[in-house]
């Protein structure tokens, strides 16, 4: 009997022991390793939260296999499998990954230091693959829609009939923005008016925008900022994207992208064709959108002889024709009353070569070489302007890592030549040789300083004059990590721009009656930006961030278009500056990772101080508001609603435009690898012709108002995407 009682007591003791397991847990951020308070820990029906030190304890747990979940606003929910007792461990650490970490870990390429965006002192805005995919639905032909809807950027249409456009950053003329494709500056001068219309988004991985002077690495032309379009690179798995799109205004787009890395070789290939019928929305006999056809072919071949060396050879070919003007002429039925047209024919070929050698101590040497040939012809009745723009770019850089310093130094050479065909009045040529050095110093985890200097020697000449100038361009940026929630960046530097006749104004005039440059000097600038960023969690599963940025740029010796008594136009340097100042406010709300709201406001005050009366720069809204709401279930569907408010603008004649709103809606449904989409752009039919017709008589030799609003009105497009 005593043995039975002893056995029962032993069994009871074992049972009680199994029922008295406890589990001590510490929750921490995966990256910062700092403790996380308020994490919800769920085990069956038991739920507890970590205290202010990130600690929690689960008591009286039966032994055996357990599945425990951990959730916290702004972090991915994770599940952990444990067997109790927990391997004789008193305390278990759980590391959670922020839902924003993917954004924070974006590697920016425009600064060339291979740093994450959160550790880069230079303020770089990135437009990632998800947003690129959405804008690809709206306008597969080019990146104009992507840039038009970004805070602080403005796509300015320069022609009422041909649709040519340029990019403005912080209110400054498009010639002050440096456009890059994978770091190659092949879109300037004669090509500038059509550049963004010939860059498709289908093969882009991300777009990086640096606002303010960025001359240390990119030299002349980067006064207002840099927009760098970054292409996708091949991966081990086959990647492919194909799109077919059709719109109600007569546009058809068919394109494909494919890439893969196999062994020592890799490749990427992009092909896209765009067709557009002439479109006259207001029935005034003139096209708001020209008849056009465009083809782009861009293959790149990669060779990896070993793990430390990458070689790339690529070639991009684009050919296009667009014809706007009188609809009867476009349709091949001209007569005495219908004669006006504007035709652009372009051929662009860019060959690129890149060699990247990496060493065991993280040091790397990179050689970049490109040759771009751009052949363009503009025809209007009784007038022809055509020429070939040749551009060569060579850059050799060395990146060094030494303790807390990341240093980059290099030299580059840029040759640019324009030769006018038939007559030689506008022949011009420039050559610049530059050396640069930049150091990024990690003073502490909370403070990082980036300083650099560039020295450029530039010669530019045409039929009238020959000038040589040397520029010393210092630049400095600082990043301050004030706390886990607050960061701030400050940046400033100098810049310059070689004189050119190819501006937004002359583009709209087809360079007619524009005299060659004579005895002009380069424009020079000083500018800077400062911002503060705050990120936190509001309520349950709602994250919030705000970025407040201020900017200022002053340009001395600005090149100003003037007219003489004979009716010709010429450029001269003004004695007083052009100055642009303002601020951008960006707010982001994310609820449960599915519902996102973006709010962006831009205030810009840009003035030409050399003017005696109205000094405000024309075609520049002082106030602009961007609103975007997205609801998405990953790999299932997405819905988007957008609203944009554009404030009043001054025209070149000094009059002021009304402000206006525009709205858009898009939807996409995904079935595994196939997606169907539809997009309603400007569905309230906002357009300039509702206020006044853009075309002024006479019908056979019209003049055109400045473009300050939409010209084409409401558009609807939809299509099919296939992703391999």
Describe this structure in words.
Helix content is 7%, strand content 55%. By secondary structure, it is mainly β. The protein folds into 3 domains: 2-98, Carboxypeptidase-like, regulatory domain (Immunoglobulin-like, Sandwich), CATH 2.60.40; 102-229, Ferric Hydroxamate Uptake Protein, Chain A, domain 1, CATH 2.170.130.10; 230-723, Maltoporin, Chain A (Beta Barrel). The strands form 7 sheets. The chain has a 22-stranded antiparallel β-barrel. The protein has a 4-stranded antiparallel sheet with strand order 3-2-5-6, with no helix packed on it. A hairpin with a 5-residue loop joins strand 19 and strand 20.
User: C-alpha Rg, in Å?
Assistant: 29 Å
* CATH topology assignment of the largest domain: Maltoporin, Chain A
Strand content: over 45%
CATH architecture of the largest domain: Beta Barrel
Q: Unreliable stretches, pLDDT < 50, 5 or more residues?
A: 10-18
Total E-strand runs: 39
Structural class: mainly beta
Which secondary structure elements does this structure contain, and how are they paired or packed?
Blueprint: H1 2-18, E1 21-29, E2 40-43, E3 46-49, E4 55-61, E5 64-71, E6 78-84, E7 91-96, H2 101-104, E8 125-127, H3 129-138, H4 144-148, E9 153-157, E10 165-169, E11 177-181, E12 204-211, H5 215-218, E13 225-231, E14 239-247, E15 251-262, E16 265-276, E17 291-306, E18 309-325, H6 327-330, E19 341-358, E20 364-380, E21 383-402, E22 405-420, E23 428-441, E24 447-462, E25 466-481, E26 486-497, H7 504-508, E27 523-538, E28 542-556, E29 559-563, E30 569-573, E31 578-591, E32 595-608, E33 623-633, E34 637-646, E35 660-671, E36 674-681, E37 695-696, E38 703-704, E39 715-723
Parallel strand pairs: 1-7, 11-13
Antiparallel strand pairs: 1-4, 2-3, 2-5, 5-6, 8-12, 9-10, 12-13, 14-15, 14-39, 15-16, 16-17, 17-18, 18-19, 19-20, 20-21, 21-22, 22-23, 23-24, 24-25, 25-26, 26-27, 27-28, 28-31, 29-30, 31-32, 32-33, 33-34, 34-35, 35-36, 36-39, 37-38
